[in-house]
Specification:
Keywords: Signal. Pfam families: PRC. The protein is of the alpha+beta class. It has two domains: about 120 residues, PRC-barrel domain (SH3 type barrels), CATH 2.30.30.240; about 55 residues. Helix content is about 45%, strand content about 20%. The protein is elongated.
Length: about 180
């Protein structure tokens, strides 16, 4: 499940500029405001317990319907004494992004630190076709429910506003009649 890298880089660059890279509050020591998708892909990944030992790299960045970062796919290769190449989905809020050498595009790089231990990382969902299909379906369902809820709330708001305007109109008519009657006397 790999997309064309230039397409992914262009899409991520636009997305990261528009939506901002969401990272956990604890990690945002100093927000950069703008992130390079090209440099974020393949960034070295560390866990909080092994801050000196790289455990993998960013393989992919997953976006939601609002084009915001939802998760990173971390490729551990064979670094965690696991069987074969493993790719895990790590949701936003479980990692931090640290900019290194950010003054020049030629030297720009990121360091990703997971707010997880290696054991916790191994319990994250594996990035597979099965996971992708289930996650896509679940998010589409949540999006549809949100859209329906928003439409229902809008209709309720419109109905309430219409009723309020009717009551205001009736009250103004009564006041107008009272003023007319008072002026006729």
């Amino acid at each position: 499940m790999t997309l064309d890298r230039p397409l992914v880089t262009a899409l991520l660059a636009a997305t990261l500029c528009a939506g901002g890279l969401a990272v956990s509050q604890a990690a945002q020591a100093e927000s950069q405001g703008l992130y390079s998708a090209s440099e974020l892909l393949d960034a070295d990944v560390y866990t909080r317990q092994s801050s000196d030992g790289e455990i993998g790299e960013v393989e992919d960045v997953l976006l939601d319907n609002d084009m915001r970062v939802r998760a990173l796919v971390i490729d551990t290769g064979q670094l965690l004494d696991m069987q074969g190449q493993q790719q895990y989905v790590v949701e936003t809020g479980k990692f931090t992004v640290e900019t290194r050498q950010g003054d020049s595009l030629d030297t720009l790089e990121y360091r990703i630190t997971l707010d997880l231990t290696e054991d916790e990382l191994a319990r994250q969902p594996e990035y597979t076709d099965t996971w992708w299909n289930a996650a896509t379906q679940s998010l589409q369902q949540a999006w549809a429910e949100t859209r329906e809820g928003a439409a229902s709330a809008w209709e309720t708001t419109q109905e309430g506003a219409s009723q309020a305007m009717d009551r205001i109109g009736q009250a103004l008519e009564r006041v107008g009649k009272q003023v007319q009657e008072a002026s006729d006397q």
